[in-house]
Amino acid sequence: MAMKLVLIGPPGSGKGTQASRLRERFGIPHLSSGDILRAQVAEGTEFGKKIKQYMDRGEIGPAELITEVILDHLGRTCPDGFILDGFPRTLYQAEKLSESHAINATILIDVPEKEIISRISGRLSCRKCNSIYHSTNKPPRQENVCDACGGPLFHRQDDNEETILNRMRVYNKETRPVVDFYRKAGQLHAVNGARDADSIFADIITLL
Ligand code: AMP
Asked: How far is the CA of 34 from the centre of ligand 1 (A)?
């Protein structure tokens, strides 16, 4: 299925989890801007060095440069269909994306702020395949080992309470206008993200 989807939601709303389920179900590539940026930081590229400080603080960073890197990645790896997670995060990014791609649907996964901190502070991510776990809600079968690929799990450096609060502030200020942008374009579908991953996924499938 060739489809261009955007997933939007506050940090910890389950965008990554839902995007990887959608990828499994429909075979559409999943592109997480955070994963792409973390890979650059881990490789120690010039770009990675430039953005690390922003990521550690939960900030947006150099908007034009990041937009260029993500759109370039999109054009090279999945020009015909994708599930975007974490991008666009600002109005500028949404406008740039719309210049090169016609989006079929945008899904807003809404979660109340009070739920976010407990979700994120228990989050574990796989270093190899980026699968996501939670220490109590979705623990891996073997401690610190990814069920899917056997890779090592890690706790993201920016998944601490202070940075999470900043990421929520940035979301409210910078990303809420993106939600309005897609709402005005008649492309926004909202799902209640304050439930288990299976129910949210079922809602998304119904929408699509
Ligand atoms: P995420 O994995 O989506 O939570 O992103 C982690 C961090 O990467 C964010 O707090 C930002 O610092 C940075 N980041 C991810 N996506 C973007 C983007 N589209 N624009 C700017 N910064 C981003």
From this structure: 5
Measured in residues, the chain has a length of: 208
**Distance of alpha carbon 204 from alpha carbon 208, whole angstroms:** 6
* Prediction pTM value: 0.92
Ligand 1 atom having least distance to the Cα of 170: 10
Q: Looking at ligand 1, which atom is closest to the CA of residue 33?
A: 16
For tokens 């600002």, the residue is: 90
| Span of 1-5, 72-76, 140-144 with lowest mean pLDDT | 1-5
pLDDT in tens, 123-149: 999 999 999 999 998 999 999 999 999
How far, in Å, are 102, 113, 131, 171 from residue 128 at the CA level?
31, 29, 8, 27
- Choosing from 55, 83, 84, 170 the residue with most ligand 1 atoms within 8 A of its CB, the one to mutate for a pocket test is 55
Rounded to whole angstroms, how far apart are CA atoms 6 and 19? 9
- Radius of gyration (C-alpha) of the chain in whole angstroms: 16
Distance (Å, whole) CA 49 – CA 79? 27
- Which of 89, 127, 154, 178 to mutate to test ligand 1, by most ligand atoms within 8 A of the CB atom? 89
Q: Could you tell me the domains of the chain?
A: 4-113+161-207 (3.40.50.300), 123-158 (no CATH)
Q: How far apart are CA 205 and CA 208, in angstroms?
A: 5
